[in-house]
């Protein structure tokens, strides 16, 4: 994995436009999450797609996507670049969360509010 804008994109044989797009997305993520690390991988379902996998230690990985989603859509739709950002959390964080006890309390459903006829 690489940090910052020094990834091995050139090893995948990417064109300069895609390399520039990846560098731009990385920079956007790093401005908000300086400890983020990145990996570039080919798409699984689309042969021409490129996945930028961003590993960030956050509660909700979708927060990372929120930082770049508008630009990702511009790159895909307006510039025709099949680039996707895949936010993930560090493996250590996932393991820690799996080992932590979960609250046995469940939210109470007010069935009267859900179905007034049940009153």
Question: Short summary of the structure?
Answer:
With 119 residues, the chain is an alpha+beta fold.
Distance between the termini: 58 Å
Helix percent band: 25-40%
User: Which CATH class?
Assistant: Alpha Beta
Count of folded domains: 1
Coarse morphology: extended
Low-confidence stretches: 1-7
Number of strands: 3
Instruction: Output the structural class.
Output: alpha+beta
- Please name the CATH topology: Beta Polymerase, domain 2
The major pleated sheet works out as: 3 strands, mixed
Mean pLDDT: 82
Strand order in the sheet with the most strands = 1-2-3
Binned strand content: 15-25%
Oligomer: single chain
One letter per element, helices H and strands E, the order comes to HEEHEHH
Total helices: the number is 4
Question: Which second-level CATH architecture applies?
Answer: 2-Layer Sandwich
Q: What is Rg?
A: 20 Å
Question: Can you walk through the features of this model?
Answer:
The protein has helices at 16-32, 62-77, 91-99, 111-114; strands at residues 37-42, 50-55, 83-88. The chain is 39% helix and 15% strand. It has a 3-stranded mixed β-sheet. α2 links the parallel β2 (50-55) and β3 (83-88). Residues 1-7 have low confidence and may be disordered. With 119 residues, the protein is an alpha+beta fold. The longest helix has 17 residues, at 16-32. The N and C termini lie far apart (58 Å). α1 runs antiparallel to α2 (62-77). It has a single domain, classed as 2-Layer Sandwich (Beta Polymerase, domain 2), CATH 3.30.460.
